[in-house]
Structure formats: structure tokens, C-alpha cells
Amino acid sequence: MDCTRRHALVLCALIVCLSGCGADQSGQSANPIGGAGGAAGTVPMNVPTGGSAGIGGAAGMAANPMGGSGAGGGAGIIPTTGGMGAGTGGATGGAPAPTGAVSYHKDIRPIVEARCLGCHVDGGSGPFPLDTWAAVEPVGALMVSAVMTRRMPPWLADDTDCTKIKDSQRLTDAQLKLFADWQAGGFPAGNEAEYAPLAGEPPPRDIGEPNLIVKARTPHQLDPGTEYYACVQTDANITEDTWVTAMDIVPENDEFVHHAIVSVGNGSCSALGTTAENMYSYRPGSRTLIFEEGDAMLIPAGSRIAIQFHYNTRFESWGSSLPTDSSPLRLWTLPSGQKPERAIVRMPHHDLFINIPVGAVDQQEGGTQSIGSEYARTGAEIIGISPHMHYLGQVFKETLHKADGSDVCLVNIPDWDQDWQLDYFFDPSAYIPIARGASVSQVCMFSNRQEDQGTDPEGNPFSPMYTTFGEDTRQEMCLGYIWFRYPLSGAL
């Protein structure tokens, strides 16, 4: 797989990772496990190991990421007792596990099915499937590496001292130990009859098929060899108030779609300084956004829907032939004339005056913003937050200052990753009642060193530059969308 082409889904990283996007830009090394060139490997793991050469190696990662002569020799990164030996590649755990030992079917498969199969299936955004033992067996060591270093599942928020997040994909210490023990035991498959779904996992909510598909009026012709934004006017004909209960975007060309922002209103692609409202954002790792029963977001009658697509075709040579793109916005809506119990709205909170000099390390930006009366309506609650920064971002934290003087941590992301920008919705039991007089404050920390930069079309890192607020990924943002809901009766 050509990792450089998969910028939009960061498959250079995913080639060694599990994905948690079933739960829901770039300059990464082509061999993120073995470091530049593959050398001796760089991933520390506090797990029992044994054996000799493993993946990585002096020769770096070749077309076969799991072993064989292409995987290289040298010290490797994840030597195991199970035989990830030089030139062999792959886990050797086809045999049943000893009694009481950690095995795939009994211990690992329930976690994989709950946390990984939203992406890692045939046709999914993950670079390889993980939905069968035959698919898992060759990549066992890669899975363990990705999990133990918390690269996967991609879940950045730490809610230890913050508002409890619904459907958290963060693996527990006990689950991490299962992966470590599975590796130490040689990646055994175990007995399929021992499989049981992960305990405590609610069954997925069946929302059926979307009943409104919105696409570009005219398919967009992708432009090779660049990174750019395209404001696409859609074919939506919103003739009556339309209440949306779920939505997503399915990239038609996922290797080129970096992210997308849906704006509803006057046809503008920016909600800043216009009457358009930023309704939904697709980013790597996004999943179908499903509101709670009784909640919905309004698209007013007569609205125009525009989608701003951020395309990255930098790794396609100038003059090459690329397809058109008509990535659809999919909407699940209430029947005509029906209204929900509660309306959903979201408020942008941003710092427009970012100034990050070259060489800055952990420079703090952000600010405080009052929550307007259009959000703090009678019975209103805060139900989630969607943070956003770019490459230079290091830390994102948002705090609610309630009208009674108390403070509530909404989200804390101690180690920002541009490649995984998720919507964090709170557990319904933790929704936060809001009243007029409340405000929110952000802390965004940035570093602007050489190692913090993205890359040019040839894969060379950019040089640090003085950075201010802007939509381009070489500029920066300190932006959070706070989600509210309030009773519909008498609210509109």
C-alpha cells in the first residue's frame, strides 16, 4: 500500500494500527513503527518479549509489513515468544491456547469487534480487515503495538477528571494487559466456541437507511498535486422544516477527502461572519452521528446546504488523471410535519487572534466566551463538544463556568493528534444543565518547532513559520463546537 496517498485517513499510521472509528491530516513517516528508514524500531512496550528479529529491522518496512525478506532483519521492534522471527512474519498462533491462557477468540476478539470493526472491514476506511481470524493472524504484533502505545483505538479525550463521555473507545488497563499477554503467549487463536461479545456493550441502535441523500449539484473534478478547499453547492431542495436525527458523510474518494464541513443557511461555506450555520463536520475517525431518542437538529425551510471539502491530492503528480468527487451527506430525518421533543444546536467557540512565533513550545492561546441566550434557553443542557486544531496543536481543554460560580471540565485532550478529530458526546447521565450567565473558556497549547510541521507534496517537512488563525492546515485554529439541546416546546 502506498501510504503517502492515504493522507486523508492517515493510513501510514493505520498500517500498524487498530482503528476505533466504529465507535465517531499529515506528514507521517512511511514507516511509523520502525522510525525513519526502519532502523531498530522505536515503540517501547512494557510487555514480556522474547525471540529475536521482528518487524521493522534495518531495512525498514517493505511491501509486506509483517515479515518475509522485505521486513528486514536487525533488532526489530516487537520480538515475541510466538515467533515473529526474521524472515517468517506473522503470528504463529493457529493452535489452541493452553487452558487459562489469553486467546484471540476468548479475550481479544470481543474487544476487536467492539472497538475496531467500524473501520477494519472489507471496504472500510481501515487499511486491512480485522473481522476474521485469518485476517488477524498475520498482523497480531502490529495490533499489539498499536494498542499498547495507544495509537489505536484513536480516542484522544481523557475524561478522568472531566464530564463522562458516552461510548468511550479508550481501552482499560485490564484490556491492554490482555493484548500484552496474548503476545507473550504466542498469539494463540483459542477455541471459537469461547467467544462472547464484550460485556456491558449496548447493542448498536438500528436507525435503518438514510432517507435524504445530499450530493454536489455538479461532481467536483479533483485537482492533482495540491491541498485545497472546494465550496460545493448541493442538490438539496429543503422546502419545509426538516428535523435531522442522524447524519454522516461517506467519502467517495476517501484517500483524498481530508475533512468536510456542512453549512446550512445562505449557501456560504463559512459560518464566520455569515448567516450560515455549521451543522456537521466530517474528519478522519468520524462515525455516523446519532442523536438520542427525541432529539433532532432543524434545517429550516428554504435553506441551502453547502459543503466545504478539504481535499489533499498532494501526493498525486501534476497532470495525473483523478476522478470526480460527489461524496454524499446522508441524513436521517423525522417524517414530514413531525417535530422532536428537543432541539439540538451547536455553538462555535474560537480564538481568532492566535499568534505562534517560530520555535514556540507549549504556547498557550484561547480565551473566554459567554454562552448567549440563544443557547442558554429554558431547560437547556450541554451534551457534547467537538474540538479542532491543526498540526501545531499539543493540548486542548475546554471548561464551563456556570452561572452559580462552579466550573465543569467539558473535555481534556492532553496529547492532541491532528489525524483524529472526534465528536465527544457526553453520557446522558452527565448532561450539564445550563442557564444564562454561564461562559466557557479554552486552553489551546501549540508548539512550532521543526518536528511539529506537516509535509510538502514530496513528503519533506515544512519549515516553521510565524502562524496565525486560518483554515489552511499550515495556519492554526483553537476551535470547539459545543452541542446543546433544549425542550422544543416554546423554544423556537
Explain what you see.
The structure is a single chain. The chain has 492 residues and is mainly beta. The protein has three domains: 1-199, no CATH class; 205-339, Copper type II, ascorbate-dependent monooxygenase, N-terminal domain (Jelly Rolls, Sandwich); 341-492, Jelly Rolls (Sandwich), CATH 2.60.120. The chain has five helices and 22 strands. It has helices spanning 11-14, 104-115, 133-136, 140-148, 173-184, and strands at 212-214, 220-221, 227-233, 242-249, 257-265, 277-282, 289-290, 295-299, 304-312, 324-325, 329-333, 342-350, 355-356, 363-370, 381-388, 393-401, 407-413, 424-425, 432-433, 439-446, 467-468, 479-487. The strands form five sheets. Strands 1, 4, 7, 8, 11, 12, 15, 18, 19 and 22 form a ten-stranded mixed beta sheet that branches. Strands 3-9-5-6 form a four-stranded antiparallel beta sheet, with no helix packed on it. β16 (393-401) and β17 (407-413) form a beta hairpin. α2 (104-115) crosses α5 (173-184) and α4 runs antiparallel to α5 (173-184). The protein starts with 10 loop residues before the first helix and ends in a 5-residue tail after the last strand. Residues 1-93 have low confidence and may be disordered.
